[in-house]
Amino acid sequence: CRGAQVLNVAFGGTLWQDIPAQCRAAICHYQDSAARGELFHSLTLAPDSLLARIMGPGQHECNTFHHQAVRDVAPGFAAAAHAPDGLVEAVESADGLALGVQWHPENLAPEHPDHAAIFTWLVDAAAGGALGGVLAMRLFRHKTLHRRFSIGMPAMLAAQLLLGAVVQLWL
Hints:
single chain, alpha+beta, two-stranded antiparallel ribbon, about 45% helix, about 15% strand
């Protein structure tokens, strides 16, 4: 879930730093850690989103273990899912190359095919277009990322090569 938050902030979005303190009408977004494979609250997927194409349109259920959440969605991204209280539960890039979810589908996938579908999409996307290299190049070209993390060109080139190689080896 932190990955969705980092993805959003890296591309210029913001976070609610503490849901209980800042969002008085929020539902509980932190279930018992021992219940990682249990569904806790509903999600409404954006009808025309990549996530809706992956999981199926409409309402789904998810687990939840976070006290921070996306506040302002980054430019070039859209909210792909919302909790019943309106908090963003997933973001995706307009080009369909990046998807971040606020819940933990890895704990739900064994029993819930809609969550397993996220991993099927990831593998299919990686197999179809060397997703790692594309994402690394996108990150390399993103000026906001350079400013926020002071990453120089040699480090980004190395990251691009490493990420592309990992995806290729994984296949």
